[in-house]
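Researcher: I'd like a structural prediction for the single chain below. Treat it as a standalone chain; there are no partners to consider.
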Amino acid sequence: MLASSYSGILVFFSLIVAVLASYTALNMAGRVASTRGLASRLWLIGGSVAMGFGIWSMHFIGMLAFRLPIAIGYDLGLTTLSLAIAVSSSAFALWLVCLEELPGRRLCGGALLLGAGIAAMHYTGMAAMKMEPGVIYEPWLFAASIAIAVLASGAALWIAFRLRRDAERVVLPRVGASLVMGCAIVGMHYTGMAASQFPLGSWCGAANSGLDAKWLAVVVILISLMVFAIALIIAMLDVRADALVTSLDRANSELVQLALHDNLTRLPNRVLLGDRMEQAIHTAAREKRQLAVLFIDLDGFKAVNDVFGHHVGDLLLKAVSRRILAIKREHDTVARLGGDEFVVVLDIGTPEDAAVLAQTVVDQLGAVYSIDDNTVHVAASIGIAIYPENGRTTHELMVNADAAMYHAKEQGRNGYCFFESAMNANVHQQLQLQQDLRRAVDRGEFLLHYQPKLVSPNGPMVGVEALLRWQKPDVGLVPPDEFLSVAERTGLIVPIGNWVIDEACRQMRAWQDEGHDDWTVAVNLSTVQLTHVGLVDVLREALERHGIEPRHLVLEVTESTAMRDAEASLAILNQLAALGVGISIDDFGTGYSSLLYLKQLPADELKIDRGFITELTQGNDDEAIVSAIIALGKTLGLKIVAEGVETVEQQELLTRLGCNALQGYLLGVPVAADQLSRANRALA
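Model: Treating it as a single chain, here is the predicted structure.
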């Protein structure tokens, strides 16, 4: 027999190629299994080519590593056929491991077919040498090589099936499995080569007409590495692309969740509620059924916020939402509009169904809450609008349910009320008032009246309070209690309040030019104004524009406004005080002040609420309360002002109790600026 040998470097490269081919096969199996449709088919085709070329390259490099003392070549046709067998076998293997299940019988059948394909590729490659006389194979080694091919194929199929899902935790197992599979493939090849014997005098029929082995080894190695690199890079990029798509889908889902749900309670918000209502109305119209909209507003929620703070208020809203969700039926919609307003949309057979649910909601929400070791009570006022009787659109149903809810509040709260057409009048009045207010802001229809503030008991006058009036065309002066609540609810109070500050400063400049350098002008700040980010800049610019020293401007903040969010109010009032303006706590005695916060407020003045002054007479309860407030204020170093003084008895009693200044109709009614000087001279 002819003596044979191997090129050590090519044997080493054949092992490297076998390991890379195995890793590529496992990676391709993962991509095929994780994709669907056309993408899966494309990965199957590409993976088959890469895997098949890898296995064939290992075989061919092993063939090129084989040395005989004669010239060797390879027939192009048979070599190409061996490559085709490798690619076909690889396609079968990838298809098999990407099935949903791989039972034992299917695994064994697949191992036989794949092993036979690999053996056929190997011995077809051997036949490409066209040896004369033919190659003699050692029977037991020949059988062993086929057995190794089948066993290696079975192991490869089982490993690939187990590691086919793409995930970070399968990277290291794939590397280990690639080493095992690569060694098995190399073992099969060199066992088959060991079975080959070449008689003396043999010659290679493809030596002159076939592929030259001298340069073919380098080309095959380079092409193999290139194919593996391209396949793995594309696979990794595809994995990263899938991960990016998954991440984007998750982020998009989160954005949709945030856009359509309330951040605090996770209930649907106004946008999603509108969509749900449109669908419910469409279904009710098609099936000729009734639909009920329950508009729920909490009674007493503001007091909870004022007393316990917004943290407890937020926890209360979450508890309320849980109670409503526990009551609703499967297909009902519960949404939070904002603040303490909730809406329930439900299919009903009769209006009585809505009444039953509304009463259940009232009962459940009225039960006691225990939040952060605090016992909290709220009630619910509910307005009910029925489709189609009370409206055929989302807007109509919401407006009418809202009107019915306000009617429930007027009837005593803690109950429900069905919408009636007469309620629309008040709704339309509110909408018209909003439009008129916006027009008034644009046209400058507001003006200020000023009420004098005198040193107890009879003067002199030390300042004025600016009081807002609306000179409405064709109507006349509109008192503030008829429009301020709407202005606050719509946010129009901010531009109106900014105008008041500027106009008061302008008028103060005019009075100073007349010689009244010791006067101050007080303006009222609403809750919305106090928390507005531009308030400090508005004040600073107004003072600078009119050349007013800050001490001549006093900002009046009600006790309840200051205590609404005590920490935030303290920070804002400190910024205002830093400008040099005066701070007055208005309507003192009606809120829920904490003495701890009250002593920290940068206030200069404390105004006793007119509610204590109206019935004030010597010896009654109001005298005791007023006396206590005055004593508290003086202890804190504050000037005390009593407003609402209308009788001489009140004037004398307040002076005796220690009030520094008085304000009221007895001492001067609110008048326009040009009348104030005459009123002041009359008082003098």
